[in-house]
Write a structure and sequence with these properties.
alpha+beta, single chain, 14 strands, about 20% strand, globular, about 290 residues, three-stranded parallel sheet, six-stranded mixed sheet
Length: about 290
């Protein structure tokens, strides 16, 4: 179905047949307000109520690494999750390329092939775009240009300047991000698609950034691996997201807010109201504020 310009929003909470065992939630634009780049107090209150008053687990599912996700959530929410999970927060990170299980330990990781990483770096240099590479909780760059430095203002860990020629083949490079104007990224996406010839996935969480991942990588794939590890069926899971990189995750679970059912990015990007029901009395939680 094609999304309308102003999609209808459910004003009343759906009646869930039972409480999800797990909520897998995107971070940017979902937990974090896309305007202020901070976690709103109502969001923290909802997560606190969910963790303290129900048996439902709450795990981040994000394109950020774990260090960046916790930093972006702010001290109150990240502290709540650290306390709940004894310091090691489970979840799906780096678009499903790094997955931590119930005890917070690594249960799955996948990285770019060395020859693919070299090819992508060469392309970035030829086009003159800024780029970084992620290696678990590290963010790596060749130089600290303004676009790379800007990432710290988005609550990402500070990038480390490295020599990629020395590092490729010695450490895992999970994903690479190109950064430039929206117009340039739109152009270069098709060039990179032709270059990688199906040997890498492309996705975007922000219009001025292009992410290059190992083939088949997605939050959906990472979430399936996590659920297998903790023995929870996808039908017992609620997923929440707001961008292209969330679609596979939304498709693979049993609980998706009814107004996300189209899976059109233009539809669920414009909607940020989530009603959740918890407990015998079906208390209604407003996860994020309704925005016009």
């Amino acid at each position: 179905a094609t999304a309308s310009a102003t999609p209808p929003v459910a004003r009343n909470p759906p009646i869930l047949p039972y409480l999800p065992k797990l909520v897998a939630c995107d971070v940017d634009g979902t937990i974090i307000n896309s305007t202020t780049h901070h976690t709103d107090a109502p969001t923290t209150a909802v997560v606190r109520a969910l963790l303290e008053s129900t048996s439902t687990r709450f795990y981040p599912a994000t394109g950020r690494n774990r260090a960046g996700a916790l930093l972006a959530m702010g001290p109150e929410l990240s502290g709540l999750l650290r306390e709940k999970y004894n310091g090691n927060v489970p979840g799906v990170f780096l678009q499903g390329l790094v997955v931590y299980g119930e005890d917070g330990n690594l249960v799955y990781e996948r990285s770019l092939a060395d020859d693919m990483a070299r090819l992508i770096f060469r392309k970035a240099r030829q086009r003159g775009v800024s780029f970084v590479a992620y290696s678990e909780d590290r963010i790596l760059c060749e130089k600290l240009c303004p676009r790379v430095a800007r990432m710290a203002t988005l609550n990402e860990p500070e990038a480390e300047v490295v020599d990629f020629a020395e590092l490729v083949g010695k450490i895992a490079l999970h994903k690479i991000i190109f950064m430039d104007s929206v117009e340039t990224i739109r152009e270069i996406r098709e060039e990179v698609r032709a270059l990688v010839q199906g040997r890498a996935n492309l996705t975007q969480a922000l219009p001025d950034m292009l992410e290059i991942l190992p083939p088949g990588a997605s939050k959906g794939d990472g979430l399936r691996r996590l659920l297998k590890n903790i023995d929870i069926h996808p039908k017992e899971v609620m997923a929440i997201g707001d961008a292209e990189n969330d679609i596979e995750m939304l498709k693979c679970v049993g609980f998706v807010p009814s107004f996300f059912a189209d899976f059109s990015v233009s539809l669920f990007k414009s909607t940020s109201l989530l009603h959740m029901l918890a407990g015998r009395n079906y208390h209604t939680f407003l996860f994020t504020a309704l925005r016009p």
